[in-house]
Amino acid sequence: MIMVAGATGHLGSAVVNQLLAAGAKGRFLALARDTGKAQSLVSRGVETRFADYDRPETLAAAFAGVDTLLFISTMSMNRREQQFGVVDAAVAAGVKHIVYTGLAIRDIATSGVRDLMASHFETEAHIRSKGIAHTFLRNTMYAEALPTIIGPQALEKGIFLPAGSGHVPYALRSEMGEAAANVLLQEGHRNKTYDIAGVDAHGYDDVARGLSVLTGKRLAYRDIPAQALRETMQAAGLPEFPIYLTLGTLADIKADQYAIGRSDLELLLGRKPKSLNDMLKLVFA
Q1: What pLDDT, on the 0 to 100 scale, is given for residue 207?
Q2: Spatial contact of 80 and 123, defined as CB atoms under 8 Å apart
């Protein structure tokens, strides 16, 4: 029996959709925290269990009878402690295989968001220490994050960000979800690590050109100082955490931290993933 943990989130929903499309209803369970958000799963006939990662006592019953756990990483500030607890509970309940979604990055030690993202690799190490089968899906940046990062004004005035000429191999959540579902349903993926990324990496100048074609406007990318963006975000009243996350991520892009040089997404999909222009059409539809 397979369990999709985080099944009501964006990536989890994509995995569930693919499992259902593959005719796997009855072969998997969904794990959710919010009963309201889970109603869409229940209405589709997906057996759903409920647990809260911050309440470890709820996890044992949720994992009962589960053989393979797809553990989609969280975004909590206490992610390390939270995720270690989930792994411990899954192993104690008899889960035999954990598929964990982490981060595809070149060097976490020099990352601008190391304090938050290092927990991905610590979680991988914790899973390995348990001596059970594992598969690590290290995901690149979601193409769906582009509208938030570049801001709504980009479609009128262009892109103004402190990202230099850095490149990112963006990929769609839907295709990442499809790849994860294939790993869950197929044999031969145990004790392997996959980099889930687009085949080609793109800079914000490429994104601007793609949006120019999409909108019929002449849009360009301008590399600006990081302090200028910080001041803009502070003036907008944003809390320190999203400022830290945004500036750290853009610093990583500038340093080509996401340009990992390889991708297993095509292998897991059995076809080439969407091109940048096709992704932009979907994301900015």
Answers
A1: 98
A2: yes
